[in-house]
Each structure stands twice: as C-alpha cells, then as structure tokens.
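haha ok so turns out i had the wrong file open the whole time. this is the CORRECT one, sorry everyone. sequence first:
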Amino acid sequence: MALKPISTDTRTRSSIQISIVVGLCCFFYILGAWQRSGFGKGDSIALEMTKHSADCSIVPTLNFETHHAGEVGNVDESEKPKSFEPCHPRYVDYTPCQDQSRAMTFPRDNMMYRERHCPREEEKLHCLVPAPNGYVTPFPWPKSRDYVPYANAPYKALTIEKAIQNWIQYEGNVFRFPGGGTQFPQGADKYIDQLAKVIPITNGMVRTALDTGCGVASWGAYLWSRNVIAMSFAPRDSHEAQVQFALERGVPAVIGVLGTIKMPYPSRVFDMAHCSRCLIPWGANDGMYMKEVDRVLRPGGYWVLSGPPINWRNNYRAWQRPKKELEEEQKKIEEVAKLLCWEKKHEKGEIAIWQKRVNDEACRSRQHNSQANFCKAEEANDVWYKKMDACLTPYPDVSNPEEVAGGKLKPFPERLYAVPPRVASGSVPGVSVETYQEDNEKWKKHVGAYKKINRLIDSGRYRNILDMNAGLGGFAAALDSPKLWVMNVMPTIAEKDTLGVIFERGLIGIYHDWCEAFSTYPRTYDLIHAHGLFSLYKDKCNLEDILLEMDRILRPEGAVIFRDEVDVLIKVKKITAGMRWDTKMVDHEDGPLVPEKILVAVKRYWVVGANSTSVQ
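then structure:
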C-alpha cells in the first residue's frame, strides 16, 4: 500500500483535529469518572485522573493490565476497517521464514535448509496467528527464568530427550528449567563460575555475549544476574521449540544458524562468544565458521568452546567417537585459531578459551601466509543475505602496539552513556558527539512521556521488548533495567547503519528488513516500539504485512507504541481497527502543533477458536 505525502497545512490541520479529540477524551473521561464515583472503582479512577488532569498525554481508555481490554478512541471512522480473521489453528507456532515444510525443499549442505527462506508474496498469510488454548501471560522475571506455563509451549519432547542433562522438566501445568545443559548438567551457574576464572565477567568489561546453538538458553539466562546480556540463537529443528522456550523464559534469543549466510550482526561487537556442544563443525570449510565468529568478536574478546573435541584424549570413550576423528577435528580448530591470531588462554576438562588480540600488531606474519585470505574491510558490516566467505576480517588501524583496534570501551554500565568509539572516531557518517548526546536527551524525554501513558512500563509487566527502528539505541538506554531487555533492530534500509554503536553501548541488536517476517516465534514480545518505521517503509512494502507481522510476534495483551507522522499513524490506526487491537492517539509531548504523534495500542486476549472462524 503506497502512502501519498500530504501537505504541511493538511498535516498540521490533522494534528490539531487529533489534539482536540484527545483533549475531549481526557475531559469526558474525568467527568464520567466523577459521575461514576460513589462506592467502588469509580472513586479511585476519578482521583487518579484528577491528579493528572492537566496531563492529557495519559491514555485513560487503554487497560495495559493482563486479561483486560481497552476501548477504541475515534479519530476517523468514515471508512469501515478491513477485518482480519484468525489463521487456522495449525499456524499457532508459525514462523514464516523458517517454515518446516518449506525448509525441507532446500539442500542440507552447510545447513542451508535451516536458514531463512521466506514465503513468496502469493504464499503470505493475511490472517491473525492465534495463541494456543489456555495461553497465559508468562511469569515475571526472575521467576520466568525457571518456570514456563505448559499451555504457552506445549511440547514435552525435550523433557525426555534431555532428561539426564537437566535442560527442562515437566511438572504439572508448568515446565521447570533447573539451569542445566548438555555440557553443564550441574547447572549454568557453576559452569559460568569456571569461565569467570579466566574471563573477566564480573568487572563490566564483558557485557555482550553470543551463544551459538543455545538450546533453551540457560547460559544466557544465568549470565543476566552477572550483568551480561547474551544474544542466543539456534535453528528451528528437531529440538522442538528450544528458542521458543528461551523467549518464554524471558531470555534474548532468535531463530538462527551458522550456514552459508553471514550472521545478521555488525563486525567487532561481542565481548564473548560461546559454543557448548553446539554441533557446529568449526574446522570445516577452511574454518569459515570460526572466521565468522572472529568477524563479530570485539578485539580482546573471548571465544569459549566446551565439549567435543576439546581434551579428546581423556574424553573420547565417554563421547563414543573415534580418537583419530576427534584428534583431527581439534587439530583443524587449533590451526584456524592460530591463523586468526587468537591466543589460547585455557584448556581444562572439556573447556577451551581463546582470546582475540586487541590489534593486528602481533599478527603481522600472517600477512605473508598463503592461507590468509583477507576480506574487504568495507564489507565487514554488509551482511544481510550476503554469502559467508572463509576470509579474515581485517582489524582497524592502530597507532601503537597497545592500542585497542576500533577503540577501548568503558565497563558497563558506564558504557551505556559514554561516547561510543565509533561515534568519537567519526566513523558513522552524520553522527557526531553532539548529535549522539542530543539523541540521548531526546529519548530520555520520549521515554518519560511513554511512562506517563503506560505506567506499567517500569513494573516488570514487560520483559521482552522490541525496538523496530532503533537508531542510536536511545530508547533502550533510557529504559535500561534488570527487569527487561530490548532487541534493537536496525532496518536494512535505514539511512545510517548505527547497530555497531548500539552494541558499543552494551546493548544488543540485529539487522532486519521489515518487508519480511522476523526470525522469531509467535508471541515473543511484551512491548513493541516503532519510531518512524512506517514512514521509512512507505512505498517499500505493504503496511498491512508489517502490522500483521507485529501482531504475530506480540503477546496477547501486549502493548505497542508507534511514534510517527500523524498522516501515517491515521492509516496505521485504520488497519489495526480490524486486528483485535485497541488503540489511542496521543499528542507529541511538546504539544498539539507538532506533526509527530504517538499511537498506543493493546492487543486483546484471544486464543484458538475464540469467537470466529479460522481461515487458510
């Protein structure tokens, strides 16, 4: 659906009309509250609204609590909205770009069939993905780390397959996660304690981590209490719902695989990368997967490999694998690590840890190595659907042997508002130190306004949060709290690629094109933020498709905050009127004459078979 630009006069006129509506809604709500006041709920509502009667940015008719719905405010009801029907119940866990039936039509070489393969235009569903029967709001963090309601992901296979490894247990109407894993059946905490003897996990210098082949993400779940945020990924494969369990637990995760395409992350962004029996053939294809990990690993960062083939001499019997095969596997890994100029810091039991050098000064000899094929430096962040190559990503230049290539970071949480090295060095066109600091102040103000609109933002009600157009990460930084995490998305069509800056703040994120489905399960996010997204994608793809994808990945009774031009938001509001969402338009915090407005929405609670016929 192409959106036609409107004149400034029209935009201002629409802005004023909406302001009048919002103001009247505030006035009549307060009046109605006093009229209902007497015995019961009306008194408390009236009192609360009277306290804030001068602040009509508060949304009085949306209920953000669970198992309640709000009322729809009216802006322009001249056209009857299109009504979207529920999808067939078989789509309850539909992942469009990782659909199992479509995946099986692709080659299995290098895990190609587990990569993203999105539906063609004529194959797209134009319906609402339902929640399963009995679906409930997940437990608040930290209880969610250990318990997931059975109805939300009713799959028991892992409780049998991984029973002795303490991944997951079924107990009545919940799954319990004891914190174990294939490589750490005694618990992730003890395992992390072992790593912390070598890696400085406790001092804030290791903040961002990558977990490849994460299982149910217990490693990432238990790193959280140590102020480390892990981006976990695993394919949608025979281990049914492993990433879905991670997300239901409130742990950052996406569906992903190391295959033939580069990982959707910038270069030099993770402080630590990890593989615990992840079944990735690290030495194969000229060490291509290790070289890809090196690309995303920050200078001075750590790579942890636990399980086969580490220390194969002592473990080959327990693994039930031939000694020669394991010996050759470890030999290839060691050779690639040497080529990458990683320094081996530790090998004990089944754990090995390497550290990437802080710069290229100690690795000059590899420039004369015939096996050292270097990638083009300008292509280090060009990753979306780009073929993975077995080449070495060059370090940024340094002026002395002690300098950290690309710049040294502050420890977290100081890192969150310190000037990121990519900004300080001027390596992001159009972003100066001044514009970065101004952006931070702007987002503190915006988030302050959001908290007035929705007072549950700070309460722990929203754990998994998505920012669909993250910019410099100001929204996530202003929200920073141990109760929540934000997935910062950098649209592939964004004017400025600032995802590296976001990581340098100690936040996490991913590249994505919103003309396609996101690499996650339905009902992943509690709160979605979309700033300028629909203006950005105007004439790029169908507005309706983006909104249906938002509905797919939003939990029942989850909330959405749109911030965009008023004419764009009016179109969005019309579409959402047919999506079982309740919405309300709110003025910009600087007043009614600002063309940018805020549209807030709550997705109603409904499940399979609720109140209407399914389609497709």
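The two ends are 22 Å apart (CA to CA).
again sry for the mixup
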